[in-house]
Write a structure and sequence with these properties.
Length: 147
């Protein structure tokens, strides 16, 4: 059976309407948009505002990613009252786990960007090293703050 499921993440943004001017200027929302764009770029995908289920029904989201490996897309929806971010996608038929990898990559990119910004605010010069490990394609990101 096919349906859009919602998955929680630990990422939080300031509780604001996504289409407000304040959300466009808020650093946590900017980081989220950057992390999604970075993920889309890394995976050869595109940023979108909707995802589809297995039967091609459209579901709107605040921001999403469509990649060649998961053409139905993974959306992110922000709970306006709390700033919680939920990933939404239809996992039906995704035997390779492409949607989960997209979610993990967005989370990792958001965390990396937030760490870099925090270190830059403390006047560190930043060095970032990214390596892919083994046949699983697992990614390791090392961030160094150089004084």
């Amino acid at each position: 059976m096919s349906h859009i499921a919602t998955y929680h993440t630990r990422i939080r943004v300031k509780p604001l309407p996504a289409d407000s001017e304040a959300a466009r200027e808020d650093p946590s929302w900017q980081l989220l948009r950057e992390a999604v764009a970075m993920t889309a770029n890394e995976l050869g995908g595109q940023v979108t505002d909707s995802v589809r289920d297995y039967y091609d029904a459209v579901r709107w989201c605040d921001i999403g990613i469509i990649t060649p490996d998961f053409s139905r897309g993974v959306g992110l929806r922000v709970v306006r009252q709390t700033g919680e971010i939920h990933f939404l996608y239809d996992p039906y038929g995704d035997r390779s786990g492409a949607a989960k990898r997209i979610c993990d990559r967005v989370t990792q990119n958001y965390t990396t960007l937030a760490t870099v910004r925090a270190l830059q605010a403390l006047n560190y010069d930043i060095e970032i090293e990214t390596t892919e490990e083994g046949p699983t394609g697992r990614r390791l990101v090392t961030i160094r703050g150089v004084d």
